[in-house]
UniProtKB/TrEMBL annotation:
GO terms for biological process: phosphate-containing compound metabolic process. This is Inorganic pyrophosphatase. It comes from the Bacteria. SUPFAM superfamilies: Inorganic pyrophosphatase (SSF50324). GO terms for cellular component: cytoplasm. GO terms for molecular function: inorganic diphosphate phosphatase activity; magnesium ion binding. InterPro entries: Pyrophosphatase_sf (IPR036649). It comes from Eisenbergiella tayi. The lineage of its organism: Bacteria, Bacillati, Bacillota, Clostridia, Lachnospirales.
Length: 115
């Protein structure tokens, strides 16, 4: 198996073996920035860890197939860190929303990496 496909298979396994916790449902405000409203369900994979010491972040869209075919790779200049966010079941429109979300300010920049 080539490295690229092995990477996506590993992400699929990580998601499959984890409980997805949606702690910021679509339509809710960010806990520290009340002007920011989530346009897509946002959460994390329970019992995983990322750069911010929390669980690995996920965006969960409305596509019922729940495919994992993209990630966001982001750099946060305020926190001075970087991390990935896994997109699960996101439509093309939802992928664009996620990408825009991570590029709205001068402090956070991200790229959408497709499978």
């Amino acid at each position: 198996m080539e490295e690229r496909e092995a990477f996506w298979k590993a992400i699929e396994k990580l998601v499959r073996d984890s409980n997805i916790v949606i702690d910021r449902p679509k339509g809710t405000a960010h806990p520290r920035f009340p002007d920011f409203i989530y346009k897509i369900d946002y959460g994390y994979l329970e019992n995983t860890s990322s750069m911010d010491q929390g669980g690995i972040d996920v965006w969960v869209g409305t596509d019922s197939r729940k495919q994992i075919d993209a990630i966001m790779c982001i750099v946060d200049l305020m926190k001075r860190d970087s991390e990935i966010k896994i997109l699960i079941g996101c439509t093309e429109e939802e992928k664009e929303i996620v990408c825009q979300t991570h590029n709205e300010t001068e402090y956070m920049k991200g790229i959408l990496i497709r499978r």
